[in-house]
Design goal:
Keywords: Coiled coil. This protein has twelve helices and two strands; from the N terminus they run ααααααααααβαβα. It is mainly alpha-helical and about 220 residues long.
Amino acid sequence: MEEGKLQKALADGAEIVAASVPWVASLGVALGKARTERALGALNARVDALAEQVQAYADQDRLDELAEDPAFFAAFEKTAAAVRLSESEERLEWLRNGFVNGYVLDQAVEDREVFMDLARRYTPRHIQVLAQHTDYRSPLGRRLRKYGGERLEPGWRNSGRTTANLQTLAADGLLEQIVEVDAGTTFAERNEDPEAQLTYQITSIGTAFLEFISEPDESAGQQG
């Protein structure tokens, strides 16, 4: 295969994503062409970083394989659109990590499409809350600290926002709800505040998702 075919295809895909943004011309009129072009250049740099991540973890043989894989390009186009629109540096990183883990290193192949959808949808706080249910002494726990999930604010479990996060994570199957009943609690007290009796534990899918969005294994990268 001609060298550079994948790189050209990735660049073409990034241009397709950029061209699909219908408000660019109108924004250029409103804010000024030069300012708009600078802002769009910064967004395009995010897509370039995604392509560079791919090349960092694939040798030439793997790049040749990916250049013939329609599923890879479909996922790249969708991920490129997501990184352009992301408002969070944390999400940018876990989108890049997830894409490389799922579509370059072929990890969690059966779940990668679902995991990438979650990565596009979740806020950093979702990941922080989910990470609270891991063992921070474990290798995974240590890797997650970089996403700001080391510790949330005091009393974080008692906020309405946390309740919504927990319910979303449980609905998606990443956390499991467990009802803890104190032997001394009366039936009336249990019914009065059922939410207070709930606790959560991470599921195997939740752990797999956190592994998926974590930094790829350095040993999987190109060998010099």
